[in-house]
Amino acid sequence: MPNKQPLIIDGKVISEKVRESLKPAIERLKEKGIVPGLAVVLVGDDPASQTYVRMKAKAFEAMNLLSETFCLPGSTSQSELEALIAELNGDSRFHGILVQLPLPSHLNELDVIMKINPDKDADGIHPVSLGKMVLGADAPLSCTPHGVLMLLKYSNIETSGKHAVVVGRSNIVGKPIANLLLQKRPLGNATVTLCHSKTKELQSICQQADILIAAIGRPNFIDRNFVKDGAVVIDVGINRVEDSTAKRGYRLVGDVNFNDVIDKVSAITPVPGGVGPMTISMLIANTVYLAEKHTANN
Ligand code: NDP
């Protein structure tokens, strides 16, 4: 049965609501003379990473929060990068540290992440944060997965008892989303299936999803044959495809073929304008959370 009016989940509007909800906490901190601060480390000159870092800096500025970007050349060695992290760990202006990924291939990402003080893990990707998340303990949550939960929350989409199928098992997106949906608490309690490139019968598994989450990195991969009537579809994918009519020569598309599935779904996130805007809002949320935690401990 086609759905007449699917909900197009507006990540920009929800992202604004999340930022608005953080203002009282930011005010309370400012009354104590504390401005939540984020240090962003960018290595090399990958254009997409440069864009993300600029967007993050602008968002912090718009909220009157501190953010400083540390740009290192692509030739930076592991020890030079780790020395900067050590310095930032000790810099009290920064409550959060984010290393923009991916790093140039000669650098070991996990070793770098593990050098960040877990109490300053703004991206929620340090093993300590991820371990706490799995155990259901208080910790900064990975930004994109947390953003997905907030989209579901603000759209009044129930997860309890639902079958959620996550396609993609990366450490920063797929695995944490699956874990969060599994947690025994509100916005969790789903029955979760986690799929990847070796999954057999992917289409038929996806067809069973009440909530289908695509985090694959393949443009328009999920078409209507993967989608059950009335499903909620969350498209995490951000893929650049060439488009000579676009100003930049490319346009952004998701992992879901939006136009192909739209008449089958009950709700869907567009790309751009869905999950993307949430990631930065959750980064702000984590930085505020870490600043509050720091203040409570001092
Ligand atoms: P990764 O490349 O790290 O992971 C992709 C996952 O998709 C892997 O688990 C891979 O399986 C799986 N996969 C690839 N091909 C298939 C296939 N044919 N069938 C089933 N599974 C497949 O990507 P990320 O998780 O980092 O990112 C995923 C997407 O989300 C990208 O488009 C990225 O740009 C976007 N993204 C968006 C963010 C946002 O803010 N909105 C933030 C981060 C990412 P296997 O493990 O077997 O290789």
Could you describe the 3D structure shown?
The chain is α/β, with parallel strands linked by helices and 298 residues long. The chain folds into two domains: 33-117, Leucine Dehydrogenase, chain A, domain 1 (Rossmann fold, 3-Layer(aba) Sandwich), CATH 3.40.50.10860; 142-276, NAD(P)-binding Rossmann-like Domain (Rossmann fold, 3-Layer(aba) Sandwich). Helix content is 40%, strand content 16%. The strands form three sheets. The protein has a six-stranded parallel β-sheet with strand order 1-11-8-7-5-6. A three-stranded parallel β-sheet has the order 3-2-4, sandwiched between helices. It has a two-stranded antiparallel ribbon with strand order 9-10. Helix 1 crosses helix 6 and helix 6 packs across helix 10. The protein is globular, with a radius of gyration of 19 Å. The mean pLDDT is 96. The structure holds NADPH dihydro-nicotinamide-adenine-dinucleotide phosphate. NADPH dihydro-nicotinamide-adenine-dinucleotide phosphate binds at residues 144, 167-170, 172-174, 195-199, 202, 215-218, 236-239, 275-276, 279.
Query: Could you say how many structural domains there are in total?
Result: 2
Helix content: 25-40%
Tell me the Rg in angstroms: 19 Å
CATH H-level superfamily of the largest domain: NAD(P)-binding Rossmann-like Domain
Bound molecules: NADPH dihydro-nicotinamide-adenine-dinucleotide phosphate
Strand content: 15-25%
Q: List segments where confidence is low: pLDDT < 50 over at least 5 consecutive residues.
A: none
CATH structural class of the largest domain: Alpha Beta
Q: Which geometry do the CA atoms define?
A: globular
Give, in order, the helices and strands.
Answer: EHEHEHEHHHEHEHEEEEHEH
At CATH level 2, the architecture of the largest domain is 3-Layer(aba) Sandwich
